[in-house]
What does this fold into?
Amino acid sequence: MALAIFDLDHTLLSGDSDHAWGQYLVDRNLVDPAEHQRRNDHFYEQYKAGTLDIHEYLAFALKPLTEHPLELMLAERERFLQERIEPLISQKSRDLISKHKEAGDTLLIITATNGFVTEPIADILAIDHIIAPQPEFIDGAYTGGIVGIPSFQQGKVTRLQEWLADKQLDLSGSYFYSDSHNDLPLLEQVDNPVAVDPDDTLKQRATEQNWPIISLCL
It folds into this structure.
């Protein structure tokens, strides 16, 4: 049995749940449409370029959770999952998950997208373990802050090491599937790195290192 680690956006999903949630908030008029869409698109371009300030982005992404009643945001999240996320899950992704489950592997999602958005996606995918930036929740409300280190770039390695220590697991025989050059620090830690529909930088590194390159797109 091994650990099978999955990035989420553009890996198990044929799209980006973080950006999609921001766009959903715009479409539902839960935020200032023009300003939120402008900043959401700007941060997304920074992410793709590898220049994203994750703390600045998370402050932006979590602010709407502080501006509306929790019950409303939970209901909107459920609609978002049904309308925007479930259509992004390919049969190829489901088959890969099933393959690792049948092998007896431990499955883990590790993502830079906050847990309010991603924890229910892990449930949809029937993956029990997830590491994500954890929104701070005090006295029944979100504060707009996060707890601990964001799981982004090197932060994914740090958070994974903490998780492994807690679970008394290691990376022997481990897999990590990702699309992004932002995940190179973690891809270089596992025994079996796999590039999934990779961006240009990751594709070049995967080719140089003879890592498998696969597609899970719809």
